[in-house]
Structure formats: structure tokens, C-alpha cells
Design goal:
Shape: globular
CATH architecture: 3-Layer(aba) Sandwich
CATH superfamily: Glutaredoxin
Radius of gyration: 17 Å
Number of helices: 7
Number of strands: 7
CATH class: Alpha Beta
Distance between the termini: 49 Å
Helix content: 25-40%
Largest sheet: 5 strands, mixed
Number of domains: 1
Order of helices and strands: HHHEEEHEHEHEEH
CATH topology: Glutaredoxin
Strand order of the largest sheet: 5-4-3-6-7
Length: 182
């Protein structure tokens, strides 16, 4: 009799939760610097097909991102924080994606939820990340409320429709798949 093995596909969040527990990491809720009421009220990431316009946003480097700057380009909205262990794994992958694909029309817009913009600026500078990032102010929060979870990645087509929407850490192959959306 021949033994067969069956691979069981587990949802990414279960796998990551298990790994985090094994590694002894505190839960995101315990680490979160976002007021618990805000996170508790946060909704899911936007649904596929949702239309989202990108407004003028002040960036952490002092520039302003205007809607015209992203016209006709694929836009990746990436909520992150300097204290998030899952972001620490995903952010280098996102920066690498942006560096490789920006000439082909990919815009990566980081949205830091750190308590102070200085924390986000220091984090980006220390690690050499150059992708454009904004700090989530109340005005940005009104434009597009941060969905539940962290990191959160939302990809907008050239027509501003959501074509990918994920809460939680992406695996390298998930980040690489974003390039195929160009």
C-alpha cells in the first residue's frame, strides 16, 4: 500500500498567526500604537473593483504627491508602521518592487500609521527606503480610512479600480505578482 500525502492549504493569516505565536511575537493588537478603538472600528480592505481616486498628499520628504503624478499608472497603497514586525519583513520587498517597476508605471505610496511622522522618516532613512510615503493624518484617514490589520496592501489599476486588496503580510511571491498587474 502506497502512502499519499495531502497538502492542506491554510489561509495566509492562520499561517502567519501560527508563525508569530511560535516566534514568541506579541500579537499586533498588543503592539499596535493605533488607538484600539480606531482599529476596532476599522473595516476590511476595499473590495475588488472599487474605484479610488488619489488626492494631493503631503509626503514625508516634503514633496506633495498630486493626482496628476499618478495619472495612468498602477498605484500600490501600502499601510505600514515602523513598529510592525510584519511590515519589517514586507517593506524591503515593497521597496525592491518599486525600484524595479517604477519605470514601467508603478507608483508605491506608503501610508505610515506611526504616532509621529518623525518615527516614519527615521525608519525609512535608516533602512534606505526611497518609495514615496505619507503620514496618515486625520485628512488622509478621511480620504481612505486605514483598513483593519497591518500591513495592508491595495493595488489600483491604471483606471483607479482595486485589483488586489490584502490585509496582513504578503509573501515574496505575492509582492512579485503585483508586477504582473502592470
Amino acid at each position: 500500500m502506497r502512502a499519499t500525502m495531502t497538502r492542506i492549504a491554510l489561509p495566509r493569516r492562520l499561517v502567519l498567526a501560527g508563525l508569530a505565536g511560535l516566534a514568541g511575537w506579541p500579537t499586533l493588537a498588543a503592539r499596535a500604537q493605533v488607538p484600539s478603538g480606531d482599529e476596532a472600528r476599522a473595516g476590511p480592505p476595499p473590495a475588488l473593483g472599487t474605484r479610488i481616486e488619489v488626492p494631493a498628499l503631503p509626503l514625508l520628504d516634503g514633496r506633495t504627491l498630486h493626482a496628476a503624478d499618478v495619472q495612468g499608472q498602477v498605484v500600490v497603497l501600502y499601510w505600514w508602521a515602523s513598529w510592525c514586525p510584519f511590515c519589517a519583513v514586507q517593506t524591503p520587498l515593497m521597496d525592491k518592487l518599486w525600484q524595479a517597476e517604477r519605470a514601467r508605471g508603478l507608483v508605491l505610496l506608503g501610508l505610515s500609521i506611526d504616532r509621529k511622522p518623525e518615527d516614519a522618516v527615521a525608519y525609512l532613512s535608516k533602512r534606505g527606503y526611497a518609495f514615496p510615503s505619507a503620514w496618515v493624518t486625520p485628512a488622509v484617514q478621511r480620504w481612505l480610512p486605514k483598513p483593519r490589520g497591518l500591513p495592508v496592501t491595495v493595488v489600483l489599476s491604471r483606471e483607479r479600480r482595486v485589483v488586489m486588496s490584502e490585509a496582513g503580510q504578503l509573501f515574496p511571491e505575492d509582492v512579485e505578482a503585483i508586477a504582473r498587474l502592470l
